[in-house]
Amino acid sequence: MNNANNKVDILQLKNVTKTFEDGKKAVRNMSLNIKKGEFVTLLGPSGCGKTTTLRLIAGFEMPDEGGGQILFNGEDITRLPPYKRALNTVFQRYALFPHLNVYNNVAFGLKMKFVPDAEYVDKNGDTVQTFRKLTKEEISVKVKNALKMVDLEDYGHRNVNSLSGGQMQRVAIARALVNEPEILLLDEPLGALDLKMR
User: Fold this and answer.
1) Residues 4-37, buried b or exposed e (16+ Cβ, 10 A)?
2) For residue range 153-172, what is the model confidence (pLDDT) as tens digits?
3) In this structure, what DSSP letter does residue 4 have?
4) Angle between helices 165-177 and 102-112 (to 10 degrees)
5) Model pTM score
6) CA–CA separation, 14 vs 25, rounded Å?
């Protein structure tokens, strides 16, 4: 018996449509169910809507009005901004911050992140969860582990503009992985890497 069939859908696209200002439909009535733990690849010719679909899931594009729904763990996230979605994206063009070194590019999301801290019961008997920011030490450990994963552990101090295309792509992958997202969206993330590094 296949265990994947027993898993809950983590991501659902229901009849999603995206039309650009020039009238071109980039995504037309697309439905897709992805289960937790699945690895899904979108294949097709250039211009068929693969990147637009990823941008819709990430929240960088919005479907047409009445153009379907995007659900994450059953919750409608169709109009939710990107920073409120529990996913990370590695873009084809890396989207690194040129004014930050490798370490700070990878650490950026961690510095913004809040994690559960403590719970207490308020005067009404409700359980309240408090949150805190990660410590510098916690961030350092996570960044070093992420850089080691992409074989760049000695590059933290380097300016991103001094890196090769493949190295920049690996920094972008480390930056996405370090936040431990529930969903990781990759838009041709291995294009600048040689076969051995892939």
Assistant:
1) eeeeeebbbbbebbbeeeeeeebbeebeeebeee
2) 999 999 998 988 888 888 98
3) G
4) 20
5) 0.71
6) 16
Tracing tokens 């972008």 back to the chain, one arrives at 172
C-alpha of 26 from chain center: 21
Angle at 9 between CA 28 and CA 59, to 5 degrees: 50
Give the Cα separation of 116 and 133 in Å (integer): 9
pLDDT at 15 over 60: yes
Tokens read off for 32: 């897709």
List of domains in the chain: 1-85 (3.40.50.300), 94-182 (3.40.50.300)
Tokens standing for residue 27: 């995504």
String of DSSP letters for 24-89: -EEEEEEEEEEETT--------TTSSHHHHHHHHHTSS-PPTT--EEEETTEE-TT--GGGSSEEE
What are phi and psi for residue 97, nearest 5 degrees?
-85, 115
Burial label for 176, CB within 10 Å (0-12, 13-18, 19+), is buried
